[in-house]
Structure formats: structure tokens, C-alpha cells
Amino acid sequence: MSQIFLFIFVVSTAAGTLVGGPIGDRYGRKLVIWISILGTAPFSMLLPHVSLPLTAVLSFCTGFMLSSAFPAILLYTQELLPTKLGMISGLFFGFAFGVGGIASAVLGNFADTYGIEAIYNVCAYMPLMGIVACLLPNLKNRELPK
Fold it and tell me: Among 17, 49, 111, 121, which has the minimal tally of Cβ within 10 Å of its Cβ?
């Protein structure tokens, strides 16, 4: 059963990534980042309080919304340093996987100490940290280096 739920989440992240790129091209990367990250919050905050079938639906919505920001974030960072595309891509992927690995170890330790339910409830609120997207600079009027 856990494989089915994992499959639902992984498919949702793949679909979100595919949809997020064209939407970011059309409406702007900063807007997609805002909507994707903060739009995940309602779904994730409901997750600890719903039944198992609704968990599958909310998991799909959460994965889709969150991963739709992936192409926008990558291109946004590349626009910040357009002459360092390889460095930005390498840092982005290395940092993302590194932080994911460290976070899973830290959350596992907290789950051993406080219980899985407590960590599940705390993690439900983590998408609200996306509010820091308000600090992103506006790139619309930025001049490209020659």
C-alpha cells in the first residue's frame, strides 16, 4: 500500500514539474514560485487531519503544487547569474539533494524523540516558510550582461 501512495506522490511531482515550466514562461517565474510554494500550504496543513483516501488526493495536490515551482526556481536562479549557468545548475541540484538528505536524518531523529505524529504535524506547516519569496528581487527590468 505504501508503494501506491509513493507512486501517487512521485507521479504528481513529475506532472507538476512538466506543467510548471510553461506556466512560468507565460506568467512569470516569481509568480509561479509564490503560487507553487504558498499554494502547497492548504493541502499540507490538511494532511494530518484527513482519512487515508483523502491523504492520497492531498498528497497528489501537494506534490503537484510544490514541484511546479522547480523549473521556475532553477531558471530564476540562472537569470540572477546568467554567465554562470553550469555553476548555478550544479549548486542547485547538489544543494537540493544535500539538504533533503540532511533534513531526512534530522526529522528521523526528531521522530524518534517526539513521535512521528508530532513531526507530521510540524511538517504540515513548513510550506508557510515560502513567505520568504517576498524577498526575491524583481528581474523584469534587469539588464543582461554583454
Answer: 49
